[in-house]
Amino acid sequence: MIDITEIKLSNAQIAWRAAQDIEDGAYVNLGIGFPEMVAQFQPHGKQAIFHTENGVLDFGKSPDKGHEDWDLINAGKKAITLNPGTSFFHHADSFAMVRGGHLDVAILGAYQVAQTGDLANWSTGKGGIPAVGGAMDLVQSAKRIAVITDHVTKTGAPKLVDTCTMPLTGVGCVTRIYSSLAVIDIEVAGFVLREKIAAISLDDLQSLTGAPLHLDGPLQELACPKELA
Amino acid sequence: MIDITEIKLSNAQIAWRAAQDIEDGAYVNLGIGFPEMVAQFQPHGKQAIFHTENGVLDFGKSPDKGHEDWDLINAGKKAITLNPGTSFFHHADSFAMVRGGHLDVAILGAYQVAQTGDLANWSTGKGGIPAVGGAMDLVQSAKRIAVITDHVTKTGAPKLVDTCTMPLTGVGCVTRIYSSLAVIDIEVAGFVLREKIAAISLDDLQSLTGAPLHLDGPLQELACPKELA
Amino acid sequence: MDKTIQTAAEAVAQIPDGATVMIGGFGGSGAPIELIHALIDQGARHLTVVNNNAGNGHVGLAALIEQGRVDKLICSFPRSADPGVFVAAYRAGKIKLEIVPQGTLAERIRAAGAGIPAFYTPTGFGTDVAEGKPVAVFEGRSYVQERWLKADYALIKAELGDPHGNLTYRMAARNFNPVMASAATTTIAQVSRLVPLGGIDPEHVVTPGIFVSALTEIPNPAQEEDLNRAEAIYP
Amino acid sequence: MDKTIQTAAEAVAQIPDGATVMIGGFGGSGAPIELIHALIDQGARHLTVVNNNAGNGHVGLAALIEQGRVDKLICSFPRSADPGVFVAAYRAGKIKLEIVPQGTLAERIRAAGAGIPAFYTPTGFGTDVAEGKPVAVFEGRSYVQERWLKADYALIKAELGDPHGNLTYRMAARNFNPVMASAATTTIAQVSRLVPLGGIDPEHVVTPGIFVSALTEIPNPAQEEDLNRAEAIYP
Predict the structure, then answer these.
(1) D26 at interface of B, judged by CB pairs closer than 8 A
(2) Catalytic annotation present for B53
(3) Alpha carbons C157 and C37: distance in angstroms, whole number
(4) Order of strands, sheet of C96-99, starting from the edge strand that comes earlier in the sequence
(5) Which regions span the lipid bilayer (chains A, B) (predicted)?
(6) Are D101 and A171 in contact (CB < 8 Å)?
(7) Beta-carbon separation of B98 and C27 below 8 A
(8) Has residue B71 been placed in a domain?
(9) How many angstroms separate the CA of residue C33 from the nearest CA in chain B?
(10) Residue A186 lies in a domain
């Protein structure tokens, strides 16, 4: 198997790439953990508005250490700050926003994504204690569901698969994957490759992917700022 | 048929009688029109808290003429005032209070009440334009549903009936009727007479009632302040 | 991002013939009179309107009906001090009426905004309004299934608004406005005062901006009750 | 009418063994630590607890679990920085776990408060959490039927409270507290500041007093995060 350690994108680069597609004025929910990083890379002149499940819309960046207020946190329980324009609301209202289709984009992590758009990201199914949080609500309801993820697991197994073997978070919900090697849309045909990093061949990329990669129109180079590597 | 014009209670007296049963601290909704009058007769030392469907809890009495604020109205579109303790909320939250069973008492008017507790008070069924408002929600959900009404229609027909002939507002919902002649509970047996005005005989009262009046325990005199007559 | 629009006319310009339009308010309180009048001027026809009532006098919703723009009205209580316009249109067969219990109306609108296609309510069980609807028993009690109610547009009235569309309301004028804001594809708010971003305390926002597409400042908005006492007629 | 109670101990005194208790908060924000600790002192056992999480460290909900008082936990996310107490109890078979997606949890609680016994949601369709639940198709899309979730008691944390039980919250500490307040037979609030009647602007009330049975003032309430950073253990 090809060793991608040296060529694959860093998490920061993946997050940067995902951030480029967020339109000005979009309402965005970022999953807890790695996806939170996307907020750092909003392109100049495009201002996204971030929603967090625990009842805050239009919040600001992390406070300096020592300036946290633990009543002002995001869904990952990390401290956030106020923006001019912030609003607070209770949990049922917060998920009314989610379920009602008012979010433009949700960006989540993944254990597995199937070529049908099925997502598994809440339970490994191996006897660990399951924890679903707001993921199942988000994936059914935001107008666009994107995943950011390493292209393969730590042991080199594909995370982009024919059929998910882990418990599903949602059925047919993901429409775009930003991986450490490529940008892939999910359409009727399955995985449609839009961009790949220059350092990997199409054949090698296919060998690391658990279902066929289709081409439809021009294939772009996936280029990210080197300083984020 | 007996003429009750001279002996029957006034609307104010009926409203007064209904007000005596409202417990201190009770949350109460008064239907639009005649039932609104109940608020004027809260017994000394008992403070009810009034809810109106259009999103106000714990409001005060009517303002003086010329001091109305038309953003501060009740469900009957009459001007009200603020109390210390008033709160505002939107319509879905207001009916969450109603439907969720948080009101202790709702007092409504009636076209007909059946001995089963069925209530008809929204449509005469005669080709008039129907208007239901919040009545159907109230009658299904408040902990106690009481009706205040004349005992008979303007033409002398019973309003307390065996079976409602007009379109129903709710099924089996009314538990007490304060009429212009009597106080009647609705129980498994049907109409159970609790109080009647001294000036009418039991036989005459029965003749003005469309279903059997049962006795269960002592029959009290229905006595109301004469100055309200 | 700035959602503010200069005039009511511009705010309602895109509403097409045949649109379903929710109009906030309970009677006159919270009724967006200026937006409704702008919609009359704009000329859209064959509208389905969702409102608690059916208009009063000859202004606001009553005027929209009087101008023959409303094919169907979904409401809970088509009575008012002066319901003549609606009554005449209804009796002439010019307007269809769907009566919905007030709490069910509010919850159907809230459900649309919250992505809930159907829910069960005890309201209306055993009555005419339950006719043709599925019934189910939960824990021994019977309930009626009701469906969400969505709209293409919502016209609402708020008190303060900021450029992101965060809104507050004034007293009982809140009523249907916040739930309607959440249930329409496009929500247009008239605000009595436009404040800068940050001008509304985050704890006091009632409608977060995510539910608002556009807002326009109408200082000193007309109150339906005052117009009717002055026997106003629009246009 | 005055719903204020002098001490947390008195406020929770009536909670019986076997009760279902909703506890507000999302992680530590909005968690009524003093009420939970009073419940630990009070001694009630075999509780079913509804909370978004499963405790963190050895205080609050984690301490209640560590003391063996909780037979079953209904939550969306039983992970935290230090979930050891829950994990140990779960692995030892001492506590049952029902996992509910967070939005479904919030809506089931809201439905209980709003008198809606069941509703349909797209959330969880086609996943393990939909197993055994009715499914229905509306307008071509599949939805799962979810049921209301009621409780005997709710323990919540608020910022301001008045003698009628009107409440406000502090920033993201609002979270589950208002919906839980509406869904329990008896709702007990700890408030950081008790104000006289009229001390809360009617426009700013988040939980109207109708949902609150009793409230007690706990000035300067403990923050779970601070306790855990200080490695506190209760009792």
Answers:
(1) no
(2) yes
(3) 13
(4) C96-99, C70-75, C47-50, C20-23, C151-161, C184-194, C214-217
(5) none
(6) no
(7) no
(8) yes
(9) 13
(10) yes
Structural domain boundaries of chain D?
A: 46-99, 153-210
Instruction: Give the separation between CA A99 and CA D117, rounded to whole angstroms.
Output: 19
Q: Which of A6, A23, A36, A53 is catalytic?
A: A53
- Residue A30: inside a domain, yes or no? yes
Contacts of A58 in chain C (CB under 8 A): 164, 208-209
Q: What is the pLDDT of residue A171?
A: 97
Q: Is pTM beyond 0.90 here?
A: yes
Chain C: closest CA distance from residue A77 (Å)? 19
ipTM of the complex: 0.97
Nearest to A100 among C163, C182, C196 (CB): C182
Chain B residue numbers with beta carbons less than 8 Å from the beta carbon of D163 are 85
Share the mean pLDDT of chain A: 96
- Does the pLDDT value for residue A1 go beyond 80? no
Q: Give the neighbours of chain A: at least 3 Cβ pairs within 8 Å.
A: C, D
If chain C, 235 residues long, is cut into consecutive pieces of 10 residues, what is the mean pLDDT of each piece? 97 98 98 98 98 98 98 97 96 97 98 98 97 98 98 98 98 98 98 98 98 98 97 97
* Calpha distance D35→D49 (Å, rounded): 14
Does D114 touch chain A if contact means CB atoms closer than 8 Å?
no
In whole angstroms, what is the distance from residue B57 CA to residue C35 CA? 29
For residue B18, give the CATH number of its domain: 3.40.1080.10
pLDDT at B200: 97
Cis peptide before D32 (omega within 30 of 0): no
With contacts defined as CB-CB under 8 Å, which chain D residues touch A170?
A: 125-127
pLDDT tens-digit profile of D83-105?
999 999 999 999 999 999 999 99
- The answer to whether the CB of C23 falls within 8 A of the CB of C31 is yes
By residue range, what is the domain housing residue B158?
11-224
Contact C119 D122 (CB under 8 A): no
Residue B2 in any domain: the answer is no
Residue-wise pLDDT for D161-197, tens only, equals: 999 999 999 999 999 999 999 999 999 999 999 999 9
Q: What six digits make up the tokens of C202?
A: 């985050």
Quote the number of domains for chain A. 1
B65 CB contacts (<8 Å, ≥6 apart)? none
